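Exercise 7.
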Amino acid sequence: MQLHEYQQYDATGLAELIRRREVSRENVLEAAFTAIETLNPILHAVVRTRFEKALKESRDVSDDALFSGVPTLSKDLLMGLAGEPLAFGSAALSQWCPKEDALLIQRSRAAGLVIVGQTATPELGLMGITEPKAFPHPVNPWRAGYSPGGSSGGAAVAVASGIVPLALAGDGGGSIRIPASYCGLFGFKPTRGRVPLAPGHSEVWQGAVIEHAVTRSVRDSAALLEQVNGLAPSGPYPVHRETGYVAALAAPPKRLRIAVSLGDPLSRGLGTQLNPEINAAVDKAAAALTDMGHEVEWCDPPVDGEALADSYLTLYLGHLAADLRWISQQTGVPVRRLAIEPATRAIGRLGGKLLAQDYELAKRYWHVAAEQMSHFHQRFDALVMPVTADAAPKIGELYPSAARERLMSVLAVPGASSLALKAGLLKRLAVDALGRTPFTQLANLTGQPAMSVPLHTAANGLPVGVQIVGRFGEDKQLLQLAAALELQDVWQHQLPRQAFRS
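Solution. The predicted structure, written as tokens, is:
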């Protein structure tokens, strides 16, 4: 199988070719290896490969497995492969290896996917860009010098460039939807608890994090979710395994009541500037949904955006402080000596100064927002919003400058972290971290399913996704709506699958 032939298919299409014996699993894997060897030196999507192991594992794939030996990539974060490095994008964990496979890895393999490598992520998955100091920075395949977003940036580059047809990804505050938007892909974040994080973790970021994938097609996303969903014995959420995700795509969605918003409540107080291209993308989505016969109305989500940002960042800070302690325990290196980035160290120090009552009050607001959105969804089936305030930024544009890193290093001085919190640094962090991406955290905090649908291309040639948020637990309805939009737009034929444009 030639590389250009391989790149024409999504995962479902490749699996059908393998089942019909038009190509062999080895042929498909060799094409994936060629794609990595050809494109990765330019795009830097993959941080490590496992070609020999992948070939061996492909021979054990069941003939009845849904994906029949199709290659994929896992993320260098949380998705442990037993006895193999998992660095979380950090030099501090470069030699660390988990003792067992993550449940998502186990279920993906049972579904017939073969893992050929791991994709780049920012250090500890903390940023909406993928620019770790320990690894090369992934390049958006649509345009040289531009970011694919994060934290699943490497995964998005790998799929958009045609290295693999789908890649496993995770989302704690938009980390599937943001890179999907920047790279012209379909990115689906399932309902909280739908995909367990066991065995290494029962939950991450108090349940804000959930894993799934970035894909070229809706059917791949639905097919994978059907295979990997369902509770784990150690999981905190009793979400039982469901079927029917793929079958739901065959039927047109019923007439839905859909709210459309530019997300103003979520960006309030963050200095967000909405690019007109984003307005155009949302307008395009509203028009398409109206033409499909849905009842569309402009209406903002009924939440306090500033309180939401503060509560999200409070949990973010607290969890990072705990994560650094965990890394210290795993590596035997004191926290103060860990090989971590200045921004990570500074944010961790801030998190270590939070009071337990501040942490608890922040978590309580998540429940307030969830209740507000529950009432909202008594009126509306779905909410259309921006994914981000602009198309992809240039690489380096959003990473802390050298001057900001020097300022952050001051937080290492005893007492400085406490003073910084009292001086309102949490608010400054909110503006810096969320000013460009304030629209995706809502679904993580409330646990709702949400997706980025690639419906628009900006004048500079960069993709722009539109976010659609669904009612809690209504993953099938959201996927069904995405499939109907996909039929209208056929976005998967527009990908820059062989080289980026300058």
